[in-house]
Amino acid sequence: MTRVPLERRRLGRTSLEVTPVCIGGAPLGSMPENFGYEVTAERAVATARYVLSSPVNFLDTSNGYGDGRSEQRIGQALAVEGGLPSGLVLATKVDPDPLTGRFDATRAQESAAESLERLGLEKLQLLYLHDPEVISFEEATSRGGVLEGMIALREEGVAEHIGVAGGPVGLMQRFIRTGEFEVLLTHNRFTLVDQSAGELIDEAAAAGIGVVNGAPYGGGILARGPSYTDHYGYRRASDEVLRRVARMEELCGQFGIPLRAAALHASLRNPHIDSTIVGTATIAHVQELVDLVQINVPDELWQQLDKLKAPREEWLW
Q: Rounded to whole angstroms, how far apart are CA atoms 124 and 89?
């Protein structure tokens, strides 16, 4: 396939312009407990270096991915390449203290400082509050809470923009309604089978908040089908969901469209989603992702796939 440059779009009201797909850096940190395989430092750095010069200009990581290995390896790639390439957007996340679980304003400062050191940067373009569901909303937003720390990091110029990245839809709504966050990252909740984040995404976009959608493959089942895994979104899928995904895979085959292409485009076709994160740890998968973006999924297939969404009671919410 002949590759063409990927379009770039403004991420909400931020100053950042991103491609419709983003490389998720969690696998670069070698997290076999999540992904089922080890990733060597050599492979991770090589993949990160490839991303820096690829058509994809958006790379996502986190303080806690692989106990900091993801950031360290991306930092090594940046050092070899002479720093952050012009036009590339690198996002990372604030995580709780890995030993104590402390997640407050002071920890936000500590987490950002650790990220800067690992990445070899002086400031962060986009910094998310990561998985705030590990504490209560009240704790996060109280005086001395982690939200206060995030705001301070932006005011101090450590982070150009701040966002919130998490799962539970109702909780994410509460965070974006504070008016402090410029970007929302939702995951596993806007896919071919689960669209529980649909209204959340619409609300964020209406407020001028950038929207990033993670895990369009639901952990792999929407990339390789139910013969690869019987899990969706970190838990075993119900028999009903497995049946529907199997039928989706069958339909895609009839149209000559890979299931993973349809799963990716289910996110790309939503006008309120600015970019979609796909995690990878190989150069070949980065190349494949760029090819998948350019596949045309016919309307006739969408009409049939839309009917196969799981019932609302099956969604993660």
A: 9
